[in-house]
Amino acid sequence: MTGVRLLTVPTTGPDDTDALDTLSGNGYSADDVLAVVGKTEGNGCVNDFSRTLAAAAWEPRIGPDAVTVFSGGTEGVLAPHVNLLIADDTHDPRHDRGLVAAVGETPVIPPEDLGRVGQMEAVRDTVAKLVVDLGISADDVHLVLVKCPLLTSTDITGLRDRGIEPASGDTYESMARSRAASSLGIALSLGEIDEDTARAALAGQRTAWSNRASASSGAELNTCHVLVLGVSTEASNPLRALHTEMTDAYDLAALQKAADVVAQDGGRIRQLFVKAESDPSGTIRGLRHTMLTDSDINATRHARAAVGALTAAVKGDGAVYVSGGAEHQGRPGGGSVTVVYEVDPVPTAPSNRGADL
Prior knowledge:
Elements (H helix, E strand, L loop, with lengths): L3 E7 L8 H7 L7 E8 L8 H10 L8 E6 L8 E7 L10 E8 L11 H18 L6 E9 L3 H9 L9 H19 L5 H8 L10 E6 L6 E8 L6 E8 L5 H13 L2 E10 L6 E2 L2 E2 L10 H17 L5 E4 L10 E9 L14
Parallel strand pairs: 2-3, 6-7, 10-13
Antiparallel strand pairs: 1-4, 2-4, 5-8, 6-8, 9-14, 10-14, 11-12
Helix pairs in contact: 3-5, 5-6, 7-8
């Protein structure tokens, strides 16, 4: 079990690691970092080299067991930033619980397994292990964040040369296939779906999802980096978490309801982790949208900008983690939501902290 603190720091570019100065200014070192979770200002698509640059800048400066998760795309009002999850098991008796985190990696995902059962099971097993390591139940988990690989054109050619058809022959579509497999692995590990449902969903059904899954894909890695966040009574720190979902890209009410729960708990929002996607039906509340038919701008970029504005308005600034492409991460057209918040110590009976919505 590892208690954590959270630092959110704006960045001037993908290679900006000045947040390490903020880290030391708060009494921590790079060895205390469990995860660096950032938003970079690339296009968020296959050739988003801002993610690769950020990973290359950060990974030599943190411990070998720490993970990086960089999500490209800061369209609209989204602000480039990093979130540092810092190990801190300081016991504060004024708090009856606290936020805990565990990180890990799957084995290398072979290109032939990407977007398929092999990737799904690798994520399932890694998440399950991390939950056990934290000593919490699946119900205490409020976010599982995964960064997963995609298929490059070289991967696709190599598979076909070996007589293997890839999950997709389109590199951009492979990002969605990878996110889907990772998200279903998360749902399996948390007991939200069974194997038959997961396999049907992997084959294309959109009837299964997790409101605690957040997956993004990139070319900068060949394993899945995994971060599990939960709340434990064995920890004593001021951070809490809750999870919910947006039912569509307009669902400001869901975010406001989450903010109300935080306020009722006497808390302050520290960060939101939100998934966004263009509704695959082509409509939102009965009106046609053009995000899926725009040949100039990828649908994931539209979704990040739209949902990013709502999320930033609720938090009060644009340094929010909004990631595009929400396959099985919340219901179709919507997206999973996790709120991390901070409470003041209170010498009273525990409230319903960390509850689901």
